[in-house]
Amino acid sequence: FILASIPGLEAAQSWMAIPLCCAYVLALAGNGAVLLVVRTEPSLHAPMYFFLCMLATIDLALATATVPRILAFYWFGTREIGFGACLLQMFLIHTLSAVESTVLLAMAVDRYVAICHPLRHAAILTNAATAKIGLLAMARGVLFFLPLPLLLLPLPFCGSRVLSHSFCLHQDVMNLACANTTPSVVYGLTAILLVMGLDAILICLSYLLILKAVLSLAAWRERLKVFSTCIAHICVVLAFYVPLIGLSVVHRFGRDLAPLVHIIMGNIYILVPAVLNPIIYGVRTKQIQRRILSLIHI
What global pTM score does this model have? Predict the structure, then answer.
């Protein structure tokens, strides 16, 4: 396949790769710092921070599966990507996104239990239960999204091989096939709805229950104090789902949009969560702030 270039700006792509590279380095540094801080700070050895480590690992893997290939294209002009490599990249992107969605749901449940059933929190969300949730999230992502490349594998591609992004996505590759893609369309939509769609509904339900518990408190100051523990997670959920929905809308309704829109939305989808997540939790979590500052001073 041929990766999408920025129309009319091919000569400037090497310069436009610089902010992309800076964002990638920032994602590596931020998520790496989160992993280091949680590992070296015993007070952070709790389910919420273990989930945060899972999120950081996923973001590192997702960015590393895509950004270096994009930078190689922008800087060295290597637009071609092999069929097998494209399917592998597509599988990693969709699987890791599904795992991240599941982890975000687990974090919402953690906030629900901590606020609505605080006395049972330690008994329900043990370290062993947290590890099992992480393994279940990975297995769920693999099982749901492994069929996507398998459904594309036997299809013929006899027309244009130019993708609409600088990396491989299922919808993008599927649209280039010159055969009946109905099974792939139906399964892809079903997988998205049963994973990201269901997770989004359950996250909203968790926060409705949290909101109900918070509003039952007598004092406004106490309500704000309790709900403030959820602000970081809400921001991370928005950083994940808003680009995901935006990219889906562009794929579904934006065929007449400029190619630049597709490329920008794709890059936002890959990099925004990876860059913002450690910043959000770094700003909102005092223990992480203090530990990072102490490491910088050292």
Answer: 0.92
